[in-house]
Each structure stands twice: as structure tokens, then as C-alpha cells.
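Example for tutorial group B:
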């Protein structure tokens, strides 16, 4: 949580500085460390303050700020589409086009870091987005709203960014925006600043209530401050790192290593062993460490570790320690998420049934007792 909060804040600082330079507030050629820390502090303070007041404040913020950002994005798209010469056949700067195996390696790296590392790690937050939705709302409607709410903006921004890049071939998002939308610098700046705030207030709030759900008796607001302070410290650390791409790549593929592996365990457990989703959560009301709710499911832990190791073998990150021997032998092809997920799923398919039968047996004994139901579902716990 702290890592995501820090990354979401840090990743827009270069763009903010570029826009500040266009407005004449800073020297665009300088490092501007002081300005970056000040902006990060302001953003973090706003995030913690909104999350401090809870769900209603978050809902109000989203309600009144999202529509203006959509309008700004629509104006940017209109300016790009009708006021700029977009070259739809643009293939990149001269000499930068990759072919053959190198092209596949580059595509696999983007898939791992962005498609999986950035995308799939948000699944852990998915349940919270419908937490306050009325049970009378059809499940299909909730699903479509959640999926389209992510899919449409991502595709929209992707097309807009690719269109702008045809004008200059510039990869730096700050320079790309400034070169194309200098006159719209102020509204674009507001939209950019809105992004991490809208994202992180949900994360901070979710972290605090999820922590309390673990029976940790710390007030939600103290947990908000905890996240804010340590996330800001992480942002300051990131600011002074020289290689932006290497730090971000290491962070994202580091998440892939365990998320993809644990995903394999979950798929096998719920869609093969349990044969239903989401199951009956009644077992969760048992005491932790009891027969039906063990503190550690060793089948799950073993499968996870095996998956993480397989992920590393097939991983090809920018940092040498994250370049596995098999990925190196393949010439940089990064198939880490696929290897990790399949390995953990395979190991759990072997080890999981024995553990599952043991827990099911305990449930049958419960069912045999007066008042027992025997309908409880087992969830592997780390």
C-alpha cells in the first residue's frame, strides 16, 4: 500500500515540473528537487486529509472533480484530433524500430511491467469498489461499470498518447504534453494533479479499514497518517534516484513475482477444489488457528514460493538481479508472469487436495454435531 501510494504520487512529478516550466514558475532545465518535494508533500497532505474524513468525503471528491477532468481530457483529444497533424503511419524515430526477437522481447517486457505488474495488482482492491453499492443493483451492472470505468480511460489515454508521440517521437510524458498543449498547461496541470489524489484516497482508506479487519486495534485515522508519512518518505527517496525507468520497472515486476504466483493458487483452489465462487464465508468466523481456519496453509505457501522462483527464472527486468537465467537464454523474452502462475497452479494442484480434504473432513465432523451445517468453504490463508 505504501509503495503504490508513493509510486502514484512520484510518477507525475516530472510532468508537473514540465508544466510548471511552461507556466514560468520554475527553470525547466534544473533538477528542482525542492519543488518536487514540496509538490509531493502537498499532494500527500491532500490525500491523507480526504481519506481522514472517510468514505463520504472520498465520494464527494470523486463526484465533483471527475466530470471536469473528463471535460479537460475531451478538449485535449479534440485539439489533438483537429488541431494537430497526426501521422497514423508513424513507426517511431529513425533507427529505433525493433524487429524479430528483439521486438518480441520488448513487447514481453511491456506486458510484464505494465499489463501485469500495473494492472493485475489492482485486483486486490476490486472488492472495495462495490462495498457501498446497494445489494439491489444487478451484479452485471456493477461489473460493467467497474470494468468499463477502467478500460475506457486506459484505451482513450493510450490512443491520445500515441497520437501525440507521432508529432515528435518524444517519450518523456512531460515534454510530450508541453510540446503539444503548451497553451493548455494550467487545466492539464489540474488534471494531472487530480490523478494520484483520486487514486490514492481510495488506497489509503482501504488500507486503514483492511488493517482494522485483521483485529489490529489502531484507529483508522492514525493508520492514514502512517501511510502518508512513510509514502512521502518513499517519494523523496524516488526523487533522488537517477534512473526513473529502472526504479519503476523493478517495482512493477517485483509485484508480478508474487501476485501472478498467488493467482495460480487461487484459480486452482476456487475453480477446481471448491468448484464454486465465491463460496460460503461462514468458516471465517472461526478462531484463527483452529481446525477449519489454520493460521498457515502450507500447501499454499509452498506453491507460492515455487511460483515466485519460477517467475524469477523467466524474468527480464532492467535491474540485473531481476534478470533470470532462462529469460537471459531466451534473449530477453519475459514470460515471468505466465511461468509463475502456471508453476504455482501446478504445485497447488498436487499439494492442495490433501490439505483440502483435511479441512473438509473437519467440516464434516462439525456437520455431524448438533446444529452443524457442514457447508463451509475453505480459503487458503498465508
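The residue assignment follows.
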Amino acid at each position: 500500500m505504501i509503495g503504490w501510494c508513493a509510486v502514484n504520487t512520484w510518477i507525475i512529478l516530472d510532468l508537473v515540473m514540465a508544466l510548471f516550466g511552461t507556466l514560468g514558475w520554475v527553470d525547466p532545465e534544473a533538477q528542482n528537487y525542492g519543488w518536487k518535494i514540496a509538490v509531493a508533500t502537498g499532494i500527500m497532505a491532500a490525500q491523507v486529509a480526504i481519506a481522514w474524513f472517510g468514505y463520504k468525503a472520498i465520494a464527494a471528491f470523486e463526484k465533483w472533480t471527475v466530470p471536469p477532468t473528463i471535460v479537460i481530457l475531451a478538449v485535449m483529444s479534440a485539439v489533438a484530433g483537429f488541431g494537430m497533424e497526426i501521422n497514423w503511419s508513424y513507426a517511431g524515430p529513425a533507427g529505433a524500430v525493433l524487429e524479430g526477437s528483439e521486438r518480441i522481447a520488448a513487447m514481453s517486457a511491456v506486458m510484464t511491467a505494465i499489463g501485469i505488474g500495473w494492472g493485475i495488482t489492482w485486483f486486490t482492491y476490486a472488492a472495495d469498489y462495490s462495498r457501498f453499492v446497494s445489494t439491489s443493483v444487478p451484479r452485471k451492472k456493477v461489473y460493467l461499470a467497474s470494468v468499463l470505468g477502467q478500460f475506457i480511460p486506459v484505451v482513450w489515454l493510450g490512443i491520445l498518447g500515441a497520437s501525440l508521440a507521432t508529432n515528435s517521437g518524444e517519450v518523456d510524458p512531460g515534454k510530450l504534453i508541453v510540446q503539444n498543449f503548451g497553451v493548455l498547461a494550467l487545466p492539464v496541470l489540474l488534471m494531472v494533479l487530480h490523478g494520484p489524489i483520486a487514486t490514492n484516497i481510495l488506497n489509503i482508506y482501504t488500507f486503514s479499514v483492511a488493517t482494522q479487519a485483521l483485529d489490529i486495534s489502531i484507529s483508522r485515522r492514525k493508520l492514514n497518517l502512517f501511510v502518508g508519512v512513510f509514502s512521502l518518505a518513499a517519494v523523496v527517496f524516488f526523487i533522488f534516484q537517477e534512473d526513473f525507468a529502472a526504479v519503476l520497472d523493478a517495482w512493477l515486476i517485483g509485484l508480478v513475482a508474487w501476485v501472478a504466483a498467488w493467482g495460480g493458487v487461487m484459480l486452482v483452489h476456487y475453480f477446481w477444489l471448491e468448484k464454486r465462487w465465491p463460496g460460503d464465508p461462514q468458516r471465517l468466523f472461526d478462531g484463527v488457528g483452529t481446525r477449519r481456519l489454520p493460521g498457515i496453509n502450507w500447501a499454499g505457501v509452498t506453491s507460492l514460493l515455487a511460483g515466485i522462483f519460477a517467475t524469477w527464472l523467466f524474468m527480464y527486468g532492467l535491474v540485473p538481479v531481476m534478470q533470470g537465467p532462462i529469460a537471459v537464454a531466451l534473449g530477453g523474452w519475459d514470460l515471468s508472469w505466465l511461468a509463475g502462475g502456471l508453476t504455482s497452479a501446478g504445485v497447488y494442484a498436487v499439494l492442495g487436495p490433501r490439505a483440502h480434504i483435511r479441512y473438509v473432513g473437519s467440516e464434516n465432523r462439525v456437520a455431524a454435531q448438533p446444529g452443524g451445517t457442514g457447508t463451509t468453504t475453505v480459503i487458503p490463508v498465508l
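The longest helix spans residues 336-368. Compare this with the pattern of hydrophobic and polar residues in the output above.
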